[in-house]
Structures are given as structure tokens and as C-alpha cells.
Design brief:
Largest sheet: 10 strands, mixed
Length: about 210
């Protein structure tokens, strides 16, 4: 992997209240600290500078941008964690992928497992992989690429990236799974656009959105 040089712009807060804080994660910033002092700078530590009580609920890959929620109490962390675990959180991503993705909508149902010799890469494995399901819907076709909405039903590591690759349409700018011209972009073209979940205090349905910067 290339050298870790996280973006320096201030983190944008999309929502805050007594139980949660929702932010717009920039591409290139780790969600949690990596191994080693040089990988200490991450979204969690930056959020905790402003909200010392902030607790991790879920993660986004370093190169993915978009909506990420943190809990501000152990109760909120448990409540939200269970929603993610039980797959009650509705997640929508936007991606730009290589080539013309057809048909205009569909579902990828391919089990995934870590590719040990090449970790952190993941791979499809029908024998030992864990279930992974992604719905997709094409937004529009561009010059040699497709803009697509991705709705993961499960939350496996690198799920969207490997599923798009398995369809023959790697996500543009993906340092792990794209090759040649598909890789030659300034960032991974994957953005967490929307999270729909229940508020940990009272259970009211809430939707948090962030427009893709690409």
C-alpha cells in the first residue's frame, strides 16, 4: 500500500444529539487506528477530540467516504450495534465502476473470506466464505463507466469492492481490486450516501445522507 497521508480538512458533522454524532468521513482517513504510531490518526480519534465520549459502532474502509455514525453512550453503542448485527440498518452507497454494468439492476450473492496470503484483500469462496449479499441499481452510464447505487444486505469487509469485481466491473480507483486504467483515479470511487436506522433513545426512524463528492 502507498504511504498513509490522511486528509487534513475538518470533519463535517451531519447530526449530533445526546446519544449520537453522525459525520461525513473523508476518503483516505482510517476509521480506527492501524498498527503502528504512523497509523494513529483516524476518524475515531478526531471525533473523540470534539466528543470525548464517542464510541465506535461500525467502520468504513480507509478509502471509502461518507456517512458514519458514532455512539455517545454505552447504551447507544449497544442499541446501534445490535441494529447493524441484525441487519436492520439500511445502507446505500454510490460507486463509479469500470465498463457498462448490465442489467440495470440485480443482486450479487457471493460468500466472502479473507485472502490470507494477500490480506487485507478478500475473495469469493463457496466452501468457507461467509454469506454476502449486495443489491445494485444503475443510476446512469458514462464514458466507459457506470454510476451505480449499491445496497449491501450484509456488512462483510470489502464486500462492495469484491462483489463489483466479481461482476467484472471493479470500482474505479480501487488500489486493491482494480487494474490498469480502472485503477488510475485520484481516489476510490465509493461513497456511503445514506444510513437509515432507529434512534437509540426512543427508536424513531432516522435517515442521514451525504452527497457523493464525485
Amino acid at each position: 500500500m502507498d504511504e498513509y497521508a490522511p486528509p487534513t480538512e475538518p470533519i463535517k458533522v451531519l447530526h449530533e444529539d445526546h446519544e449520537i454524532v453522525v459525520v461525513d468521513k473523508p476518503s483516505g482517513l482510517l476509521s480506527v487506528p492501524g498498527k503502528g504510531e504512523h497509523l494513529a490518526d483516524c476518524l475515531l480519534s478526531r471525533v473523540q477530540e470534539a466528543y470525548p465520549m464517542a464510541l465506535l459502532v461500525h467502520r468504513l474502509d480507509r478509502d471509502t467516504s461518507g456517512v458514519m455514525i458514532f455512539a455517545l453512550s454505552p447504551h447507544a453503542q449497544r442499541h446501534l450495534g445490535l441494529q447493524f448485527e441484525k441487519r436492520q440498518v439500511k445502507k446505500t452507497y454510490v460507486a463509479r465502476v469500470w465498463g457498462k454494468l448490465e442489467p440495470r439492476k440485480g443482486t450479487v450473492d457471493l460468500p466472502l473470506i479473507v485472502d490470507w496470503p494477500n490480506r487485507p484483500k478478500q475473495m469469493v469462496c463457496h466452501e468457507t466464505g461467509k454469506p454476502a449479499v449486495t443489491d445494485w441499481r444503475v443510476q446512469r452510464y458514462g464514458e466507459g463507466e457506470t454510476r451505480v447505487r449499491l445496497m449491501p444486505k450484509t456488512g462483510r469487509s470489502h464486500q462492495l469492492r469484491v462483489h463489483m469485481l466479481a461482476l467484472g466491473h471493479p470500482i474505479l480507483g480501487d488500489p486493491f481490486y482494480a487494474e490498469g486504467p480502472a485503477r488510475d483515479f485520484e481516489r476510490l470511487m465509493l461513497h456511503s450516501e445514506e444510513l437509515r436506522l432507529r434512534h437509540p433513545d426512543g427508536g424513531a426512524g432516522m435517515t442521514f445522507r451525504s452527497k457523493a463528492p464525485f
